[in-house]
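Marked as duplicate of an earlier ticket. Keeping the data here for the record.
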Amino acid sequence: MDTRYAVYLHFELLGAIPKRGNQGQRILKFVRSLAEDPFLEGDFTEKDDSLRSLQIKIVGDYAVTYWVDHPVKCVMIVDICVADT
């Protein structure tokens, strides 16, 4: 039985990932890791407008925001942005 989850992100979010240096690689590595371990909690949690719990993981200088839909085995990446300092 396949225990991997599908990971989805909107095409436009790819533009937020740095193309130079290792931060972009670190972000993509983290995103890929969510397929193997979708129970990984972020560094912070907040609620969206529908009261869904969003996980926010700090990866280098960036914040990756995601939520997990366990019944359909998918992780939704909803934002990648420079983290607040």
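See parent ticket for discussion. The mean pLDDT is 93.
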